[in-house]
Amino acid sequence: MLKLSKKMYYAVEAVLYIAYNTKTVPIASRDIAERQGLPPRYLEQIMQKLVRAGILRGVRGPRGGYVLAKERRRISIADICSVIRDEDELPVEELQKTILGHGVLLPICHELSQRLSEELAQIDVAQLCQKATSKHIRREHDAPMDFTI
């Protein structure tokens, strides 16, 4: 079941930061971590999951960092959230011990989770970038581009 967590928030924000500020040079995770007020090691674990899922592409080297692995419009918020899960979070099914919990509460949780997933799937990173532009949020890097091959 989908539950929004801090990790998901930081992951979406990191992808948005890269998408909004992408230039020909990758963006280092330590720069993003600094802006988010996170320890770089914490964010790096999140970024590696996003790389393995094909949302980001890691670039090695002294000027390395991360770029989008595909177009902004092809990355939904649901895509990002589905990659980032809290490992110690138990599935709701394992927590339900009563007839009321299993018969009433669990179906409602599943329905809400499904509706949330459907809504998040309708929002892509390109839309978030457009919102940032409409709010006149200044880009921190020059020459934004969509993605690098």
What does this structure look like?
- With 149 residues, the protein is mainly α.
- It has one domain (6-134): Orthogonal Bundle (Arc Repressor Mutant, subunit A), CATH 1.10.10.
- Helices cover 54% and strands 5% of the residues.
- The chain has seven helices and two strands.
- A two-stranded antiparallel ribbon has the order 1-2.
- A hairpin with a 5-residue loop joins strand 1 and strand 2 (65-68).
- 25% of the residues are buried.
- The model has no long low-confidence stretch (mean pLDDT 85).
Would you kindly provide a brief summary of this structure?
By secondary structure, this protein is mainly alpha-helical. The chain has helices at 6-21, 29-36, 40-52, 77-83, 92-95, 99-121, 125-134, and strands spanning 56-59, 65-68.
Sheet bearing the most strands, described? 2 strands, antiparallel
SSE-based structural type: mainly alpha
Sheet with most strands: strand arrangement: 1-2
CATH topology: Arc Repressor Mutant, subunit A
Mass-distribution shape? elongated
How many individual domains?
A: 1
Radius of gyration: 17 Å
CATH architectural arrangement: Orthogonal Bundle
Q: Give the fraction of residues assigned to helices.
A: 40-55%
- In whole angstroms, how far apart are the ends? 34 Å
CATH class: Mainly Alpha
Order of helices and strands: HHHEEHHHH
